[in-house]
Write a structure and sequence with these properties.
With 432 residues, the protein is α+β, with helices and mostly antiparallel strands. It has a domain of 202 residues: FAD/NAD(P)-binding domain. It is built from twelve helices and 22 strands. An eight-stranded mixed beta sheet has the order 6-5-14-15-16-13-20-17. The protein has a six-stranded mixed beta sheet with strand order 8-2-1-12-22-21. A three-stranded antiparallel beta sheet has the order 3-7-4. A hairpin with a 2-residue loop joins strand 18 and strand 19. The longest helix has 23 residues.
């Protein structure tokens, strides 16, 4: 055992951001990831300015992010008759000191993985190895129980264990054995990408519809210099009766567009033909919109949860990956302050568990898309002048409230000192 070794269960975006942070502050770590091979899976996600700030401080550059996505310029909601409900600039155009990025999730994942391997070596990322549980030891250390893809098992002991093993976390299941099952509220999402001309600003995030049925789309690549087409990420969503629970085997599967496009047959305007747009998809996946009920604590002595293992949430706020990155950086900052100790984990739990638990519930209530619901309730989703439905002040106050809850209110973020000061190192604790 290395006395100050931190074991990271899970090599997703959150786990890799944690390992990069630990390396930055001088803490040895090892990442155990269940998949046998890292591949660029998934479609688009958004990185909010608070997360981009942290990536920059980790040495992930603008050029790096430009290779896996592009800076977002606008966030807009549109009613059922194609008229704007709300729009605002995003990132640098909104006055943040950092951009917001729309990126390909898999390519970002590979970027973080490759950067980690460059910095600490391939042996520190153990693929085909799943943390199945843990054992707290009398001397204050923790032993991770590992299941390997070849059927063998092993144990690794360290000072701390960070459970970054996602919504199906084995670490969380041991920490909270009586937790309720995964929560499905009735919404089904179909996700994919289409090669198309970007609209509006050329880097706009557009949400269209109501809480019962909506489409979200945004580009995750610059236009091709020859064709002018960008990779447009999209989510098509409808809400069903969930009284009998989810009947499919598994939570994620590839499907044909023809299986669901009929839900959007009439969604045609002069600026967007939704059925045609979906039918041109490169690929489409189906998954229910799921999360987990908040738990009262993310810590069990030398063990802490982060990312989806701690706070799996609906993607309505586009901040799941961003919050995982923030988790990693707050963990690092508190190890700088308290050392590689249970005190650091307790301080992390105290700082984030309560507020982010509230964010889970806020996103379950539609998050920033709540404006679409309000329009639906007041006028059925169609209108001539949005100001007659929801006054500008009310719309602005609604969005400001969400940004504050999600941790990216402009002035607060711009004026905040770095989460981890340049050159900071963790205080090293000794396990006896």
């Amino acid at each position: 055992m290395t006395d100050n070794l931190v074991i990271v269960a899970g090599g997703g975006i959150g786990g890799l951001a944690t390992a990069l942070t630990l390396h930055q502050i001088g803490v040895p770590c090892v990442v155990f990831e269940a998949v046998r091979e890292m591949r660029p899976l998934g479609v688009g996600i958004n990185l909010q300015p608070n997360a981009v700030r942290e990536l920059y401080d980790l040495g992930i550059t603008q050029d790096d992010l430009d290779r896996v996505g592009l800076p977002a310029k606008e966030w807009a909601l549109v009613g059922l008759n194609g008229n704007d409900i709300y729009s605002e600039p995003r990132g640098l155009l909104a006055g943040y000191n950092w951009p917001q990025y729309a990126v390909h999730r898999g390519q970002l994942h590979m970027l973080l993985h490759d950067r980690l391997v460059e910095r600490i070596g391939a042996k520190s990322v153990r693929l085909g190895s799943r943390v199945s549980g843990y054992r707290k030891n009398g001397n204050g250390s923790v032993t991770a129980l590992i299941e390997h893809a070849d059927g063998s098992t092993s144990e690794t002991t360290g000072a701390l264990l960070i459970g970054a093993d996602g919504i199906h976390s084995a670490v969380r299941a041991q920490m909270h054995p009586a937790q309720p099952p995964i929560h499905w509220g009735g919404a089904i999402m179909w996700r994919g990408t289409t090669q198309a001309n970007p609209i509006r600003s050329g880097a706009s995030f557009v949400g269209l519809g109501t809480h019962r049925q909506r489409v979200v789309f945004y580009p995750i690549s610059q236009p091709d210099p020859t064709t002018g087409l960008s990779t447009i990420n999209w989510i098509a969503e409808t809400t069903l009766d969930n009284s009998e629970g989810w009947k499919q085997t598994g939570w994620f599967r590839q499907v044909k567009v023809e299986d669901f496009v009929h839900h959007f047959d009439k969604w045609v305007w002069d600026w967007l033909d939704v059925p045609s747009f979906l039918n041109q998809a490169d690929v489409a996946f189906e998954n229910p919109m799921i999360d987990r009920d908040p738990v009262p604590t993310w810590c069990d002595g030398p063990v802490a949860l982060m990312g989806d293992a701690a706070h799996a949430m609906y993607p309505t706020g586009s901040n799941g990956a961003s919050q995982a990155i923030i988790d990693a950086r707050v963990l690092g900052a508190l190890m700088v302050a308290h050392g590689v100790t249970t005190e650091a984990l307790a301080a992390y739990d105290e700082q984030l568990c309560g507020p982010i638990s509230q964010l889970i519930l806020r996103n379950r209530g539609a998050g920033p898309f709540g404006l679409l619901n309000m329009v639906d309730e007041r006028c059925g989703g169609t209108f001539d002048n949005i100001d007659d439905v929801i006054p500008p002040k009310e719309r602005a106050e609604f969005m400001a409230g969400y940004k504050a809850a999600a941790g990216f209110a402009i002035e607060k973020l711009n004026n905040a000192p770095p989460t981890i000061a340049k050159g900071a190192r963790a205080r090293i604790a000794q396990v006896v």
